[in-house]
Amino acid sequence: MEGTVFTPCLEGMKHVKSEQGEMLTKPFLELCKTILPVIDKFGAAMTLVKSDIGGNISRLEKNYLSDPDKFKYLYTFVQVEIESKTAKASSSCTNGLLWLTRAMDFLVELFRNLVAHKDWSMPQACGDSYQKTLKKWHGWLASSTFSMALKLAPDRKKFMDVISGSGDIYADMERFCAEFGPFLHDNHKFLATVGMDDMKAS
């Protein structure tokens, strides 16, 4: 593998915003897709996360493809749904964007932990990230299912070997967190301005 498993993600980040600094739909969704192969390397522990992320990308992509000009900018989905009073529906794009962003928060926090705590085991790094990000939004059932799945986290050394390729994995991981984190922060900030950042799982 040329570079590390993060190389395509780091490349994709360059195209996410327009020259005016607006979040572009297609590049953002393409960027999220480049993270799916990274999640694959976690095996069974991340099956839930992967299907959740994949499902939300598909939902947003389907709507984007219905009118690429109209939905060129990521937040248009939310603005349209707020006007039609459908933003709070469980199948809405607003809900999809919110949960996609939250799942990515979890991954960014996890990679931060792996960089900052080289002595932590994988279940410890995953558990801490879950507590800091997704847990407060999950109901009891989602929380127990998630916690059970994280117990299947792979051995840390094996995981790092698999994702390293020929690059500097810790440097790429750190760069990924530093550059991807602000996009997620922007999403939360926008969702908060329209009162949509604090929806919980049923």
Structural account:
With 202 residues, this protein is an all-alpha fold. Helix 4 packs across helix 6, helix 6 packs across helix 7 and helix 6 runs antiparallel to helix 10. The N and C termini lie far apart (41 Å). The mean pLDDT is 92.
Task: Average the pLDDT over all residues and give the rounded result.
Answer: 92
Order of helices and strands: HHHHHHHHHH
How would a crystallographer describe the biggest sheet?
A: none
Q: Report low-confidence residues grouped into runs of 5 or more.
A: none
**Rg estimate, integer Å:** 17 Å
Helix content: 55-70%
Strand runs, count:
0
How many individual helices?
A: 10
Spatial separation of the terminal alpha carbons:
41 Å
Structural class: mainly alpha
Shape: globular
- Beta content comes to under 5%
Task: List strands and helices in order, with pairings.
Blueprint (H helix, E strand, L loop, with lengths): L6 H6 L12 H9 L2 H5 L6 H20 L9 H8 L9 H24 L5 H11 L7 H11 L5 H9 L4 H25 L9
Helix pairs in contact: 2-4, 4-6, 6-7, 6-10
Which features does this protein show?
Glycolipid_transfer_prot_dom, Glycolipid transfer protein 1, transport, mainly alpha
In short:
The protein has helices at residues 7-12, 25-33, 36-40, 47-66, 76-83, 93-116, 122-132, 140-150, 156-164, 169-193. By secondary structure, the protein is mostly helical. The longest helix is centred in the C-terminal third of the chain and has 25 residues, at 169-193.
